[in-house]
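Saturday, quiet lab. Running sequence design on the structure tokens for the scaffold JK sent over.
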């Protein structure tokens, strides 16, 4: 007991937080997948029937429980079940649809879902808050004259209630498109907020989508698509570049200072050679190449006369730079790799040095 009391308060708070999470919900299933059978997807099938077939959500009118509610959000469904109208159990179903490319369009391929069962205490508290809000008594949106209805589809929420033998549904479409003073809007939005906070809906959905197979395309509403890319393996060229960069990062300041100390601006300052050069030294520290960077090369698009003049300047300046840099011997550094650097020459012949990247 003494050891527990002497534990740092921050550590104790973290332990208590983890314990509270463990008791607040219970993961009841891994990802489940059901391939879509389009022979069963007739135009007359209801969304309740579809959910019964593919998401293991029983049709509420056939429910065997005394009280059974269902709340539909985008990609998430919450069922409340009670046998005594006092204690409730809540079950969250996260779902998403996998799509496949077919004849230049995307077609639904399979449903993927998981179920999370919450503890009775949390579930009952949330159920009582929804009951106290008057959600069961307020009208559906079509009976609220001030409720705006739009021609396009937009997100909303659906409440289904089966209380003993009585069944009714409340729909509320396009919540974000409503005026703030729309009757009963605050009740619906507050209840969604209660669900999101108590059951950590966003966090659970993020965990759910993190389990999805990569290289596939998914959507929870048929409008917004989620592409999970295959992990990209860097090429040998990229791996070599970063290995080389890591090596030179540890000695680059010494190399730059040495080059700056040996470079003679007077040999180039009046030659109109202010441009960027890619210089390459061998592992032995000897100059191999000097290249003029693309933006400074002669371009035919500037016209033939300018092109020929710039080409002549490019060749002359490369020759001058080679002559200066050949006198700078970097052999004392014993390079592990060939050395690349960009040399930016100003109009007064002074230089700055910076990294070269091959893309």
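Result came back. Writing it out in full:
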């Amino acid at each position: 007991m003494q050891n527990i009391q002497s534990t740092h308060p921050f550590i104790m708070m973290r332990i208590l937080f983890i314990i509270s999470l463990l008791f607040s919900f219970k993961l009841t299933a891994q990802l489940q997948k059901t391939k879509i059978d389009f022979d069963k997807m007739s135009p007359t099938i209801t969304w309740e029937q579809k959910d019964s077939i593919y998401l293991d959500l029983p049709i509420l009118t056939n429910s065997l429980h005394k009280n059974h509610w269902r709340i539909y959000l985008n990609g998430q469904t919450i069922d409340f079940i009670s046998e005594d109208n006092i204690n409730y159990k809540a079950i969250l179903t996260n779902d998403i649809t996998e799509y496949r490319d077919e004849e230049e369009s995307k077609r639904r391929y399979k449903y993927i879902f998981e179920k999370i069962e919450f503890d009775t205490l949390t579930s009952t508290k949330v159920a009582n808050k929804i009951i106290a809000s008057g959600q069961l008594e307020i009208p559906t949106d079509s009976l609220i004259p001030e409720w705006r209805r739009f021609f396009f589809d937009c997100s909303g929420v659906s409440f289904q209630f089966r209380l003993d033998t009585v069944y009714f549904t409340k729909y509320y479409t396009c919540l974000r498109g409503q005026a703030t003073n729309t009757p009963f809007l605050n009740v619906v939005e507050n209840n969604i907020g209660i669900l999101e906070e108590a059951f950590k809906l966003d966090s659970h959905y993020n965990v759910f989508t993190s389990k999805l197979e990569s290289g596939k395309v998914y959507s929870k509403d048929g409008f917004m698509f989620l592409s999970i890319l295959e992990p990209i393996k860097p090429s040998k060229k990229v791996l070599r570049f970063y290995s080389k960069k890591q090596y030179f990062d540890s000695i680059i300041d010494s190399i730059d200072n040495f080059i700056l100390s040996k470079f003679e601006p007077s040999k180039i300052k009046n030659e109109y050679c202010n441009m960027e050069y890619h210089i390459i030294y061998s592992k032995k520290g000897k100059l191999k190449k000097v290249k003029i960077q693309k933006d400074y090369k002669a371009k035919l698009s500037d016209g033939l006369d300018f092109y020929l003049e710039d080409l002549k300047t490019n060749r002359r300046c490369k020759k001058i730079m080679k002559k200066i840099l050949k006198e700078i011997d970097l052999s004392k550094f014993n390079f592990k790799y060939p050395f690349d650097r960009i040399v930016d020459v100003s109009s007064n012949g002074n230089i700055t040095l910076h990294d070269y990247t091959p893309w």
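Notes for JK: Residues 236-354 form one domain. Residues 1-7, 16-25 have pLDDT under 50 and may be disordered. Ask whether to fix the surface positions before the next round.
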